[in-house]
Amino acid sequence: xxxxxxxxxxxxxxxxxxxxxxxxxxxxxxxxxxxxxxxxxxxxxxxxxxxxxxxxxxxxxxxxxxxxxxxxxxxxxxxxxxxxxxxxxxxxxxxxxxxxxxxxxxxxxxxxxxxxxxxxxxxxxxxxxxxxxxxxxxxxxxxxxxxxxxxxxxxxxxxxxxxxxxxxxxxxxxxxxxxxxxxxxxxxxxxxxxxxxxxxxxxxxxxxxxxxxxxxxxxxxxxxxxxxxxxxxxxxxxxxxxxxxxxxxxxxxxxxxxxxxxxxxxxxxxxxxxxxxxxxxxxxxxxxxxxxxxxxxxxxxxxxxxxxxxxxxxxxxxxxxxxxxxxxxxxxxxxxxxxxxxxxxxxxxxxxxxxxxxxxxxxxxxxxxxxxxxxxxxxxxxxxxxxxxxxxxxxxxxxxxxxxxxxxxxxxxxxxxxxxxxxxxxxxxxxxxxxxxxxxxxxxxxxxxxxxxxxxxxxxxxxxxxxxxxxxxxxxxxxxxxxxxxxxxxxxxxxxxxxxxxxxxxxxxxxxxxxxxxxxxxxxxxxxxxxxxxxxxxxxxxxxxxxxxxxxx
Length: 553
Known about the structure:
By secondary structure, the protein is mostly helical. It has 23 helices and no strands. The protein has a single domain, classed as Up-down Bundle (Sodium/glucose cotransporter), CATH 1.20.1730. Helix 6 runs antiparallel to helix 7 (114-146), helix 8 (151-203) packs across helix 14 and helix 8 crosses helix 15 (370-387). The two termini are 38 Å apart.
């Protein structure tokens, strides 16, 4: 890194952070902090969702995972993301808006009761802070493997990034986060374009990459290395898993990310209309695809250039160091730093909102003035970001960062995702929420124990391996929820809404009642036919599926 490179990093990222401090001025009420006064336009929300969706851990880990396992990972960032984005923006969040909810866990109490709400809040905080740990570790790899910083300097730099993100996020809330994320998303695009172009040229184009992969022989599982370039030829760690099961697993993960994760639903709740909300989700998913495919392609290209490279998660910084010239290194580092900051601020704001509304105000201090809860949320932002460091020992011990993440998802996240679906699309009894989560989580713990600790002989791989576990987790959650509904009967909407209105008293109830209804759209004469979200979503999903199965399968 030259002085010019460091100046590029400082100017691009320093300018965005300064803008975040500027936007944070004047934020004082909970509605401003949590929802941005419901004034956010679709393109800003979409760019923010994109910047949050693609964090620095994704950029580094996608390259490492595709190097080791191939293109199958793009399933989660294509069909998986569209599935989750559409479920969230077209079904879940509109239901939350109509009821005046601020968080998705708050919705779960109205539908399934207080226990499900608190479980959801705890699961979200655990799930997303573990991802925060992945991001911290990926920045560490970048600083040490690419920039050559020693360990102490790297951790000092990372701590500084977290502190800066925490300050303007805790001060300004959602509006400051969304607009800084939007700018950081543009920086990420520029950085990805720079490294992809450089690596592509170094490899001599796709035909040369394919020839190198074909000449590389066999993988550790006995399959040809050339199979890495095809989604449909990946068959799991053991070489026996169906690629369709892998794709289904990625769709479940993508669906869970966009619905369980309040980091994304919080942005949708800040949209100025239901139309803006739907368009934001479609825009955010669509513009994420090129970067995700680009990262995965870099991993495949890297396998053709350095077939024995290790560890895989260090490949991205290695390629950047090897092939980027003066100035371009600064753009790539600026893009990764932008990705880190955008996700630090997003997680800090969303998880502190979950803690304040779904734990603190619901169970601990129920009826104080609005300013008290804004203050608590600001301090919670700092604490949430600090928790991410606790996961570093676990993450650093895995082959790839993504494998560390996938290890944890079937335990609690997939059961919670299943409960959200049941809440939207079924009349499952309110007690089905807790029963479903507990049965799904019980299976998840057993499968995790078998995969990571004991390797129990009588637990066959078809029951516990990382791909089938996602489907079994969903199935066991459904079984628990169905059993509860058979025992206690179907959901009675009027009775449950009355019970929720009675139990959620104090500041939570006042803040909900203060919200004005969200309009369907902002057009004077109705939504123009070419701008209707439903047909646009159908076209995007169909086009993505065609590209996936024609070009990558």
